[in-house]
TrEMBL record:
Enzyme class of the recorded protein, top EC level: transferase
Functional pathway: Protein modification; protein glycosylation
SUPFAM superfamilies to which the protein is assigned, alphabetical: Nucleotide-diphospho-sugar transferases (SSF53448)
Location in the cell: Endoplasmic reticulum membrane; Membrane
Name of the protein: dolichyl-phosphate beta-glucosyltransferase
């Protein structure tokens, strides 16, 4: 998992301007591997749809993943024939590697990709990218598992897709519904700071990108899609499941240890500058209360179990002290990470020391309650002891939250005067840089720049394309969509 720092905190979202004539607002990437037969009809169908329905300038980029057939030649022909089509050649396989390469070098403010088989109905393309253009969302995905989606596919893929998403929800707490649909888009400013954190170069690239974006608090828009599967497609279940589980473990470990600087991806609250001029307003109070209550409830159960165990071998005061000490250390660690969002190991020792001071206050409250109970009567029942301890812990919990919020984990962003106007993190570009001046891992052949070493010409012209022609599907043995 990469831990290098991102360029900086994202600015507030803004509606993208229409731009100059010919400047692409959308760059749709089609990753391909040995698709010499399927590529031409699918690219022409996508181009026809965009030219007919998309209100902005666009580009279609064919990302060749080290094909060994004539796919590079076919892609070059399409780029020479259609001005809005470009091609990129990579010498290594990997869908994630292809998307990272093209997205990192593209000058379009909205970046998207779709599979070459175009299983997703293209009528969902404009709803997919519209929230990104308007500034409402940071990423957008097509979902085959939404209620309004209409999907035709076999039981094997249905099982794989739903089982995989259940794993993501259970292990990484993912809230998006469909990680594997090959129909996604992202704003370029988001991609520039998010891509350096994504390590995977294969099929897990999508999932890792979405999990990190969601954990960073970025907004993911979901679009129900109509999706028709290729029944003859081959899926290597064991290999795909193994790689995905490795990726889930790696990302989960990085998130648990706080080794990713996701706090640097946080968006300002709202797009109105007045939202950033408010002073004296607690940040995230509701979320912190919910998180603290959940952690507190679990800690209380943990404490009661420990107390009951220690009570078998020690007196009530000793059992209470030991149980409260162990649960307090666990409670401070959990609140540090989950409630107050402190990542990394910096300051962990100081936080635990301050937490022990808070523990001492809780110990005084609970021990005093036990002492008062024992003074009121001889040998009180165990159930009575638990009831008194629960009441004392409730009082200590309120005080603990106030001390955690104001002393142990204070909001450092509240110090200093609030800015009177939003400060952009980077100057807005006046014009997209020419592709020739942009470094890229692989040579590009954008419109009107067909490779000089390919001299074959396209001799077949297509007739008028129907609205939904029969389109060949991918037979890549590694396809897991």
């Amino acid at each position: 998992m990469r831990t290098d720092s991102s360029p900086g905190t994202l600015p507030a979202r803004e509606h993208l301007p229409a731009g100059d004539a010919g400047t692409p607002v959308l760059d749709v990437v089609i990753p391909v591997y040995n698709e010499e037969k399927d590529l031409p009809p699918c690219v022409r169908r996508l181009h026809e749809h965009l030219a007919r329905t998309f209100p902005y300038a666009f580009r279609i980029t064919i990302a060749d993943n080290a094909s060994t057939d004539t796919t590079p030649l076919v892609a070059a022909r399409l780029a020479a024939e259609i001005p809005e089509v470009g091609t990129v050649r990579l010498e290594q396989k990997g869908r994630g590697r292809a998307l990272r390469t093209v997205w990192s070098a593209s000058d379009a403010p909205v970046l998207a990709y779709m599979d070459v088989d175009l299983s997703t109905d293209l009528n969902a393309l404009l709803p997919l990218v519209a929230p990104l253009i308007s500034g409402h969302s940071d990423l957008a995905i097509g979902s085959r598992l939404a209620r309004a989606s209409r999907v035709v596919r076999g039981p094997k893929r249905e099982f794989i897709s739903r089982a995989y998403n259940l794993i993501l929800r259970g292990s990484l707490q993912a809230r998006f519904s469909d990680a594997q649909c090959g129909f996604k888009a992202i704003r370029r400013d988001v991609a520039q700071v998010l891509l350096p954190l994504v390590e995977d170069t294969g099929w897990f690239f999508d999932t890792e990108l979405l999990v990190l974006a969601e954990r960073a608090g970025l907004r993911i828009h979901e679009v129900p899609v109509d999706w028709v599967d290729d029944p003859d497609s081959t899926v290597h279940i064991v290999r795909t499941a193994t790689e995905d589980l490795k990726g889930v473990w790696r990302v989960g470990k990085a998130l648990a240890t706080g080794s990713l600087p996701l706090d640097r991806l946080t968006r300002p609250f709202g797009d109105d500058p007045r939202d950033r001029e408010l002073t004296g307003v607690p940040h995230g109070l509701a979320r912190q209360l919910v998180g603290f209550c959940v952690v507190g409830g679990l800690s209380t159960l943990f404490y009661l179990v420990l107390y009951s165990a220690f009570r078998q071998a020690a007196g009530p005061q000793t059992a209470n002290a030991l149980a409260l000490l162990v649960s307090a250390v666990a409670n401070t660690a959990a609140n540090r990470r989950l409630t107050f969002g402190v990542r990394g190991r910096g300051g962990a020792v100081r936080h635990q020391a301050q937490g022990l001071v808070v523990f001492g206050i809780g110990l005084a409250l609970t021990s005093g309650s036990l002492a008062a109970l024992n003074a009121a009567g001889d040998s009180p029942a165990h159930s009575t002891e638990l009831a008194v301890l629960i009441a004392a812990n409730l009082a200590a919990t309120v005080l603990r939250f106030l001390l955690f919020r104001a002393w142990v984990f204070p909001d450092r962003t509240d110090t200093g005067p609030a800015p009177t106007a939003p400060v952009p993190t980077a100057p807005a570009p006046t014009a997209p840089a020419p592709m020739a001046a942009r470094p890229a891992p692989a040579p590009y052949a954008w419109p009107h720049q067909a490779p000089t070493h390919l001299h074959a010409t396209e001799t077949t012209t297509s007739a008028t394309t129907p609205l939904r022609p029969a389109c060949p599907h991918s037979t890549d043995p590694g396809d897991t969509r």
